[in-house]
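Field reference: sequence -> structure
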Amino acid sequence: MEDDYFIEYDTLANVVDALIKQKYQDEPVPDNIKTSREESIKRLDDQISKAFFNNLTDEQIAEVKKMLDRDAPQEEIHEYFYNLDIDMSEVIAKTIQEFGTDFIGADHE
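Structure field:
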């Protein structure tokens, strides 16, 4: 399951856990938030991957599709992304900030 993530699972989990802690501070964390933690982790990962793909050119997207079509190893795909002229850390940071703002601002459920 953890292999299905665009970003390392532990990194995503740490971000979501920190957001939960920040949102609820000294309040008890509601049970539904504890159970939806995995959904939040997956949602964050989805948002990061979408933001990253939105920064790709049509040619880069075509290349990624070719790799996926031939079932290229995940390491090869990650290496391709690493070598692109995209500041992935900036994309990730911006997406985490947006996700965090939405997460913290959402009503306590």
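Note: The chain is about 70% helix and 0% strand.
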